[in-house]
Amino acid sequence: MKTPLTGNVASRPPESNQEWQAWGQKDPLFGVIPQSGRERDGATPWTDADFYQTGLSDWEEFMRRWRLYGVERESCVEIGCGAGRLTKHMARDFAEVHALDVAEGMIDYARQQVGSNVHLYVTDGVSLPVPDASVTAVFSVIVFLHFDRIEHAAAYFCEMARALKPRGTIMIQMPLHQWPENLKPAVRGWLAGAHDAYVALRRTKGWYHRFRLSRHQWSPFMQSLTYDAGWVRDTLSSVGFQDIETCSFQLSRGAAAYSWVFARKASLV
Fold it and tell me: With 0-12 CB in 10 A as exposed, 13-18 as middle and 19+ as buried, what is 197?
C-alpha cells in the first residue's frame, strides 16, 4: 500500500485550520465540546469548572489505557490541545508537556489554565516544534478526524517519528475503517470509490464554509475524515514505528466510541 508522503500537500497547512482559528475566536469551549445549549449565548453555557472537569475524567481514562500499552512519562507532545481541557491534567502525569494548536484563541484560553511545566505553541498543523528525539510520548484526540486529507496525518506521523526518542509511544484517536478481506475486487473498488466521493463532497462543503468565513460570515463547520486501518499501519511502519495496535472504546461519561492507534518508535539498532 502506497504511503502518500510525496508532493506538496503534506507540507502545506491543512485547510481545516481556518475553521478552528474561527472557533478559537468565537467560542473556544464550545468549539472543543459542541454540546447543544453550551454555546456562550446558549441556555447553559460552558463554565470553566464544568469544562475542565470533563477533561479530568476523560484524561484519567485515556492515561489508564496508555499505561497498559506502555508509556514513559518524561515528556509529551499534545497535538490539538484546544483550550487545554486535557492539557491541564496531563501536566500532572508528565514532567513536561508541549501543547500545540492552530488556533491562537484556543492557546490564549489554555494559557490561563495550565501549569508552568506546559509549553504552548500556535502551529501550522503539520509540524511539531520540538527537537529531534526529544520527547517520550505523543498524544492527540479529536484532531485527526478533522483533517481534509490523509496526507496531513502522514506528515504528522513523520514528525512523530522524528521527535520521539527510541521506544517513545503515541496514542492517537482517529476514525478507522477497514473493508472485509473476502470482498471481491470489484466490490472493494466500488466501496473505495464511494468513500473517496464522500471525502471529496465533505472537502467541497468545507471550502464553501471557509469562503463564507473569508467574507466575515460566521459559518460553523467541522470537517470529518476516516482512515483505512491498513493505510495507517503501513504508513506508521514505513516511518519507523512498531508494536502497532488499534482499539475502540467509549468514555464512561458517554458520547461516541472512538477508535485509537497506539505505536512505539523502534529502538536504535
Answer: exposed
State pTM to two decimals.
Answer: 0.91
- Range of the structural domain that residue 36 is part of: 17-178+224-265
CATH code for the domain of 23: 3.40.50.150
Domain total in the chain: 1
Cα torsion through 202, 207, 210, 215, rounded to 10: -140
Please check whether residue 41 lies inside any domain of the structure.
yes
Residue 205 lies in a domain: no
> CB neighbours of 105 closer than 8 A, spacing ≥ 6?
21, 23, 24, 25, 26, 28
Contact 21, 102 (CB under 8 A): yes
Other Cβ atoms less than 10 A from the Cβ of 266: the count is: 16
pLDDT tens digits along 214-227: 888 888 788 889 99
